[in-house]
Amino acid sequence: MNQRLRQAFTSFDQANAKDPNKIIVSGAERPKEQVFAERLTDVVQELNPNASEPLLLASRCQHICRWEIPRNTQPMGRAGYLKWRTGLKKFHAEVSGKILQEVGYPEDIIQKVQALNEKKNLQKDPDCQTLEDALCIVFLRYQFDDLIENTEHDKMISIVRKTWAKMSPSGHNLALNINFSPAGQKMIAEALQ
């Protein structure tokens, strides 16, 4: 990892360390978005050990400072959810751009990272697809069981199918090697049959 990339990761991590939402990881309480960013970077590197620098940067800042725009800032329902998500993507791109500028990245790399933050060119950009695969894997590894517990069965089946449809064959391969809980295994099997 070069010095500038390390510095950007440190700045992203410092921003995400301010997350007031905490989760327990290995017995220690940690800021939720900081843990998410670390996990996303790890999965990107699993999927692509030779990941480009913009992809690594985007993985570390994909949800940067997400708590600053909570879900309740938009109406409930699908339209409100989609508007919230679109606003978040732009917000993440703005925050990441400012940090990358401060670290000294050139404009072309900043724009590439921001395009990845906003998931532009998903169908054409292999880095964007790798990032999407990684987001799905992080969900399936770390958030799946909690969602199963708190979501109606048919809606959960729909969520799994939509998640699966977003992933590439590489993402599917990694997902099928997750050590799912019995409830997770059952849900995956039913959704994919």
Helix-strand sequence: HEEHHHHHHHH
Outline: globular
Largest sheet: 2 strands, antiparallel
Distance between the termini: 42 Å
Q: Would you summarize the structure shown here?
A:
Helix 3 (53-61) crosses helix 5, helix 6 (126-150) runs parallel beside helix 8 and helix 7 (153-166) packs across helix 9 (182-192). With 193 residues, the protein is mainly alpha-helical.
What does this structure look like?
With 193 residues, this protein is mostly helical. The protein has 2 domains: 120 residues, no CATH class; 69 residues, no CATH class. It contains 9 helices and 2 strands. A hairpin with a 2-residue loop joins strand 1 and strand 2. The N and C termini lie far apart (42 Å). The model has no long low-confidence stretch (mean pLDDT 94).
